[in-house]
Design brief:
By secondary structure, the chain is an alpha/beta fold. It is built from eight helices and ten strands. Helix 1 links the parallel strand 2 and strand 3. The longest helix is centred in the C-terminal third of the chain and has 22 residues. The protein starts with a strand and ends with a helix. The mean pLDDT is 92.
Length: 264
C-alpha cells in the first residue's frame, strides 16, 4: 500500500534535528523542496536520512504555494501526503488515511487528528468544511483536477483559498478523528527573527490578496492597517520593543507587496 503514496514537503532553514521526523517516510516516495537550498544542506539531509529521496531547491525562497505545486507535478502515485518537517505521523497511520480516501469516492483529501484528543467518539470520520492544512493526504488525480495552491499566495492563505474551492466543488474533505499525528511546534527553522518577519509580511500580503480575489477588499482597510502599523512601528522603537517593531515593519512591507501585486 505504501507504493501508492508519495510524500511532499517544503523546508526552509530547517534545523537538522527536525529532519529526523522525515525518517518516518522511508517506505514512501519522498519529495523535498528546499528554499534557498545548497549542495551542502542537501548532503546534510541525505546523511541524516540515509535513504533515497528526491531533492529539489531554488537559490531563493519561491514560496510554499509554488514549491508545493512543483513537487505535486513530480508525483505519479495515487495518493500524496502534503506535510511539514515538524509533523510526526507514522507509516501505519498514513496508510489508514489512504483507506478512507479509497472508501469514500467523493473525497479529495483526508487529514489526521492533530488535537491529541478524540473529537467524536462514535465517528471514525467526519466530512468537514475546514481542515488543519499542516498534514493532508490528497487523492492526486482529484487535486490535480482542481489545482493545489494558487501561486499568487506566498506562504499563508493558500490553504484557505484551496478549502474554498473544494467547498464549491463536488468533492469532500474528511477529518479522521481516530488517526493521530503530532504537530510539534516550536522552532522548525533557524534564524527565528527572519522567519517571523517573512511570516508576518506574507500573512498580511496573503490576507489582502484573498480579500481581492473574493471581492472583499476595501481601500479603507488597507489605509487603516498602514497607519496602524506605521504608528506602532515608531511606538515600539521608542519603547525598545524590537520584536514588535519588526512585526510592524513586516506588516508594512506586506501591504507594500500587495500594492505592487495589485498594480501589476
Amino acid at each position: 500500500m505504501s507504493n501508492d503514496i508519495s510524500i511532499i514537503l517544503t523546508i526552509y532553514k530547517t534545523p537538522i534535528t527536525k529532519v529526523n521526523n522525515l525518517k518516518n517516510y522511508k517506505d514512501f516516495k519522498l519529495f523535498i523542496f528546499e528554499q534557498e537550498g545548497s549542495k551542502i544542506s542537501k548532503k546534510k539531509i541525505s546523511d541524516k536520512l540515509n535513504f533515497k529521496f528526491q531533492y529539489f531547491s531554488d537559490k531563493k525562497n519561491i514560496g510554499l504555494a509554488k514549491s508545493s505545486n512543483l513537487l505535486l507535478k513530480k508525483v505519479k502515485t495515487k495518493y500524496c501526503l502534503f506535510t511539514q518537517p515538524d509533523i510526526r505521523i507514522n507509516r501505519k497511520n498514513i496508510i489508514k488515511l489512504s483507506k478512507f480516501l479509497k472508501e469514500n469516492k467523493n473525497a479529495i483529501l483526508v487529514t489526521p487528528n492533530l488535537s491529541k484528543k478524540k473529537l467524536k467518539k462514535n465517528k471514525k470520520i467526519e466530512f468537514v468544511k475546514k481542515i488543519d492544512a499542516a498534514c493532508i493526504l490528497f487523492d492526486v488525480k482529484k487535486i490535480k483536477e482542481i489545482g493545489l495552491f494558487d501561486e499568487d499566495y506566498f506562504l499563508y492563505w493558500e490553504d484557505i483559498d484551496l478549502m474554498k474551492r473544494i467547498n464549491i466543488s463536488n468533492f469532500k474533505m474528511i477529518l479522521a478523528n481516530n488517526i493521530f499525528a503530532e504537530h510539534e511546534g516550536g522552532r522548525s527553522t533557524i534564524n527565528q527573527d527572519k522567519i517571523t518577519y517573512l511570516r508576518s509580511k506574507n500573512f498580511t500580503y496573503g490576507e489582502f490578496v484573498y480579500d481581492l480575489k473574493n471581492n472583499k477588499l476595501r481601500s479603507i482597510k488597507v489605509i487603516r492597517k498602514s497607519i496602524q502599523n506605521l504608528f506602532l512601528f515608531f511606538f515600539n522603537i521608542m519603547k525598545f520593543q524590537l520584536k514588535g517593531s519588526l512585526k510592524n515593519l513586516a506588516n508594512l512591507n506586506g501591504i507594500l507587496k500587495f500594492i505592487f501585486y495589485y498594480l501589476k
